[in-house]
Each structure stands twice: as structure tokens, then as C-alpha cells.
Design goal:
This protein has 9 helices and 12 strands. With 250 residues, it is an alpha/beta fold.
């Protein structure tokens, strides 16, 4: 089970609905409401809409890393191998690449060659346009003119170790993952696929695993403002037969 946190350069965390952001709090809010001992991994994404600064973002991430003792995947605005080095040296275990991978697919290969495939996660943001799932770039604002399944296959061929798959249409709606989209990508690749976008109840997490075939499930908004929501979500997955590790937090 993965917690996804959206953060700006200035350290303000946000909720998202269809990739429209709403600020919700700073690091003190994280300390108050979230129990990191219940998650298996943290995905931290820079969602600053003005100018994504990997340097400023990495400084904020270092503060968060002191609270969190699980693997961190960090991304947003990565355009060079130096950016990856900055994030890894600031506490990230993996990096998440999106728009720059679309602009230069060879960058995935270069990153995998230098840091290892297990370190490279490619984020694929999808939106249904006239019924067809399309890959979107630049914070979901531009159609990248790529078929989702074909892009997922290319991402794997280029050396990515994981895919972080987000449905923009489902993001923040609470109606559940786009299972059809998820299954189409899972069936097309052999690398792990992380489901993202749409969780509104704990059963949706299990649906992502059992129906969608995801290797891991991610959520964000459902956990905000619920102090023990992460713990309850993990307990629910276990009660329903979800094969997920459980930290000893009782």
C-alpha cells in the first residue's frame, strides 16, 4: 500500500481532483494526521504549477524523510541525470519521471543504465478523450498523442522498473480506479504497475489488486484528515486477503 503526497516547492501539500489542486497544509499537518508506519512506500510528487524546482523540492523532501522510514519515490520536474542524483542524495530511493520521458524516451534508458532499473519509475497520466485512453503531459494539460498501452510497452523496453499509472478522470473523485485502463496496462507489461487515481473507500484498494491486477495500490485524498486511515486501510486489505506486508505498529 502506497501513500501519494502532492507537494509544492514551498512545502505546501495539496489535494487533487482531476489534477486541479487545493492546498491542505504544511509539514505540521502531515505530522498530525498521517501515520507513516502503516504504509509500505511513499510517493512524493512535486506539483508546483509555476516552476518546478528539483533543488527546493529536495530540501522539503529531506524534512519529510526524517518522519518516514519507508522507501520514498520522488518526482516532478526531472529533466536530467543531475536532477535524479539530487533527489537520491536527499533521501529518495527511487525517482518518478513523466513529461521528460515523453519528450526523450532515451532518458529512461540513460537513467536506468546509471542508477539501475529498480530506481526508475515512469509516471503515466491518462485521460479518456472520445472514449480512448490517452497519455497526457505537463500536469495533465497536454495530449501527448500516445496510446497508453503502446507507451507502457515502450517504457518497459527503455528500462523502467515500474509504472505509476494515474487516471486523471478518476483523480480525486472517490469512485474507484479505472479498472479497464489498469488491466490493459498490467496485461501489456511484465514490470510492476502501481494503480493511482480514484480511491474513495478501502474496497477500491482491493479492487485495484484483485480486479486490476496492480502490483501495488496508491491513494492520497482518502487519507487526508483521518488520523488512523492508513492503519485501517492496511488492516482492511489484510482482512480481505490482500497479500501485503504489515508493519508492527500495534
Amino acid at each position: 500500500m502506497i501513500l501519494c503526497l502532492l507537494m509544492r516547492n514551498d512545502g505546501v501539500f495539496c489535494n487533487s481532483r482531476n489534477f486541479t489542486l487545493q492546498p491542505v497544509g504544511e509539514l505540521s499537518w502531515i505530522r498530525r494526521y498521517l501515520d507513516f508506519m502503516a504504509i509500505d512506500e511513499l510517493v512524493l510528487l512535486n506539483v508546483d504549477r509555476s516552476h518546478k524546482s528539483v533543488f527546493l523540492f529536495s530540501e522539503q523532501m529531506m524534512e519529510l524523510a526524517r518522519l518516514c522510514f519507508v522507501p520514498i519515490s520522488a518526482g516532478g520536474g526531472i529533466t536530467s541525470l543531475a536532477d535524479i542524483e539530487t533527489l537520491l542524495s536527499s533521501g529518495a530511493d527511487k525517482v518518478v519521471i513523466n513529461t521528460h520521458a515523453l519528450l526523450a524516451p532515451d532518458f529512461i534508458t540513460s537513467a536506468a543504465d546509471q542508477f539501475g532499473s529498480q530506481c526508475v519509475v515512469v509516471s503515466i497520466d491518462c485521460k479518456r478523450i472520445r472514449g480512448a485512453a490517452r497519455v497526457m503531459a505537463l500536469n495533465g494539460s497536454r495530449d501527448a498523442a500516445r496510446d497508453v498501452v503502446e507507451w507502457a510497452r515502450q517504457v518497459e523496453q527503455c528500462g523502467a522498473g515500474e509504472i505509476f499509472l494515474t487516471s486523471i478522470d478518476r483523480d480525486g473523485t472517490g469512485i474507484g480506479y479505472d479498472i479497464e485502463l489498469l488491466r490493459s496496462v498490467v496485461d501489456a507489461v511484465s514490470i510492476p504497475v502501481i494503480a493511482s487515481g480514484g480511491v474513495g473507500e478501502f474496497q477500491h484498494l482491493m479492487d485495484g489488486i484483485k480486479l486490476g491486477g496492480a502490483s501495488a495500490v496508491s491513494a492520497a485524498n482518502i487519507f487526508h484528515y483521518i488520523g488512523d486511515g492508513l492503519v485501517k486501510a492496511k488492516q482492511y486489505l489484510l482482512s480481505q486477503g490482500g497479500v501485503v506486508p504489515m508493519w508492527n505498529f500495534w
